Amino acid sequence: MPDPAAKPVRTIALMNQKGGVGKTTTTVNLGAAIARLGRRVLIVDLDPQAHATLHLGASAAPDRPTVYDLLLDPTVPLSDVVRPVNGGLWLVPAETDLAAAETELADASDRRARLRSALEAAQGDYDYILIDCPPSLGLLTINGLSAAREVFIPMQAHFLALQGVSKLLETVGLVAGAANPRLRVTGVILCMHDANTMHSREVVDDLEAFFDAARTQEPPPPWKGARVYRPAIRRNIKLAECPSFGQTIFDYAPGCPGAADYLELAEHIVAEWDEMLGRLGVSVPEAGSRPREAPLPAPLPPIVTVAPIDSRRAEAGA
Ligand code: ADP
Ligand code: MG
């Protein structure tokens, strides 16, 4: 039974097919930061490595269902899988058995949309859903992209990372074209950032030039309007330490630069969404007064092909 007072949920896939770029660190700590700002956050661990689950101190519980059960068996209710973490933060945990889901789902006609269907039950219960995608462009990531409305790309500002972004955007474009036309890339989150090197500044300039060029591109690609988020998340050893304690940075070292960066980023991300809801006439402060279905911007037409970043820049005369 729909709840007419439910708030619209902002569903974001954190995606990058490269491992070790900061996806899980960002999902967990940005999620915790958004929860500290009074929003209800559900983290979905979609990576068979289960790093987000471990980071949140939710160890495997043999008889409890996980995201694997949610994907494999559409009769498993989301509420059976969600575990409360702490104030304002909930988790759909993963275990290593999730790796088998890609092959076990291969013949299912709705294999790309299993997560999307499962999360439909979350409408109204959360303000944000953050999906920690695995470091691949396989079926699990496609489930994340089909379920999400937005994509955040955590990355490190290295030249080679730009090539990876091009491949990643191609996948986003394909999923948007085939299954989820409202999918948008909202922005890049710079992780383990060292703002003082010439190299990282050049990479950030390149990325911004690429996103700027997309503003006038026809047909508009799903990354039209995407930006490089500020602040960048500085390299901070406390962020690397806290997963082994099963704690977010706000529990482990709330005064460190890593906590400050994620909190400031969360303030920005929450403010931009509140502003968007405000523009659409959805009142933000009173939870009970929001309509269930807030009007959302019109979908963009799907894109067809994606040239690599370098050739786009060449075309644009950059
Ligand atoms: P991914 O999920 O993309 O594979 P992780 O979030 O697991 O990447 O990050 C890779 C490694 O880098 C982890 O050991 C993590 O603790 C560490 N790390 C992530 N962000 C930072 C940071 N800002 N400063 C220092 N270490 C970081
Ligand atoms: Mg990870």
Each distinct ligand: adenosine-5'-diphosphate, magnesium ion
Radius of gyration: 19 Å
Kindly state the number of beta strands: 8
Question: Which class do the helix and strand fractions yield?
Answer: alpha/beta
Shape, per Cα inertia axes: globular
* Count of discrete alpha- or pi-helical segments spanning 4 or more residues: 13
Distance between the termini: 54 Å
What is the oligomer described by this structure?
A: single chain
Average pLDDT metric = 88
Our estimate of the beta-strand percent is 5-15%
Percent range of helical residues: 25-40%
Catalogue the unreliable spans: 285-318
The major pleated sheet works out as: 8 strands, mixed
Strand order of the largest sheet: 3-4-2-5-1-6-7-8
Order of helices and strands: EHEHHHEEHHEHEHEHEHHHH
Question: How would you describe what is shown here?
Answer:
The structure is a single chain. By secondary structure, this protein is α/β, with parallel strands linked by helices. It contains 13 helices and eight strands. Strands 3-4-2-5-1-6-7-8 form an eight-stranded mixed β-sheet, sandwiched between helices. β7, α9 and β8 form a beta-alpha-beta unit. The structure holds adenosine-5'-diphosphate (ADP) and magnesium ion. Magnesium ion is lined by residues 23-24, 47, 51. The site of adenosine-5'-diphosphate has 19 residues, from α1 and α10.
Provide a quick synopsis of the model.
The chain has 13 helices and 8 strands.
